[in-house]
Write a structure and sequence with these properties.
The chain is of the alpha+beta class. It has six helices and six strands, in the order αββββααβααβα. Strands 1, 2, 3, 4, 5 and 6 form a six-stranded antiparallel beta sheet that branches. The longest helix has 44 residues, at 3-46. It is flat, with a radius of gyration of 23 Å. The termini are far apart.
């Protein structure tokens, strides 16, 4: 094949790739508009409020701690309690090196749905998270922190953060510990009268909101 033909082929392939990327972006944007419109219609029918870029502090308690990571939130009532449900995202980067020593950086955006329930009264600040590999290794090497509850099955699987370890058991009682050990509860944190948990993904079909997030509103008083 002549050089000119090779150039033409490369340019043509590049043009096709660009066109496909543009089409994918347009389709994704259309779907996002449709999703948001469906959420607004559902919120209007059920007396909820939809807020773009809400001024909330949820991000600092979420994975990645992206303070501006909440792009959209719904505010209403579930199980008789005020609740906020928000789309949250944060981006991580990783660098890899190939056999020739060339480095390549890849960015990945992670999406979560934050669920914040307003409690009837303030509680001490406590956060419960499932341990990752690093946390398990740390515990093996250095033992439990003062925030451990003293139940091996729980302390082995979960780490508890609290500014005052003495108040952990006033929030994290026996029934709650048992639910965690059974694997029936997600990670959560409480600050003042706000209980927060989160799940991977984005806010989906609005009609499924009560069934999906309603149980989160009954785990704490």
């Amino acid at each position: 094949m002549e050089p000119s033909a090779i150039v033409v082929s490369v340019v043509a392939c590049f043009g096709v790739a660009v066109a496909l990327i543009v089409v994918a972006a347009v389709v994704a944007a259309r779907r996002e508009r449709q999703r948001r419109e469906a959420l607004r219609l559902w919120a209007k029918r059920h007396g909820w409020q939809v807020v773009d870029r809400p001024q909330v502090e949820w991000g600092r308690r979420m994975p990645g701690r992206n303070r501006r990571g909440v792009s959209l939130a719904l505010f209403g009532t579930l199980g008789g309690r005020p609740v906020g449900i928000g789309d949250y995202s944060h981006t991580t980067t990783s660098t890899s090196t190939d056999a020739n020593g060339a480095s390549q950086t890849t960015s990945t955006t992670h999406h979560h749905v934050a669920v914040v329930v307003r409690l009837r009264m303030p509680r001490p600040t406590v956060a419960v998270h499932r341990r990752g590999g690093g946390s398990k290794l740390w515990r093996t090497l250095f033992g439990d922190k003062a925030t451990a509850v003293g139940y091996e099955a729980f302390d082995r699987a979960y780490r508890v953060n609290a500014p005052d370890p003495r108040l952990v058991r006033t929030v994290l009682g026996g029934p709650l510990v048992a639910e965690h050990v059974a694997g029936r509860l997600p990670d959560w944190s409480v600050e003042g009268d706000e209980l927060m948990t989160f799940v991977p993904g984005r806010i989906g079909a609005p009609d499924g909101i009560p069934a999906q997030f309603g149980p989160c509103c009954g785990s704490q008083s």
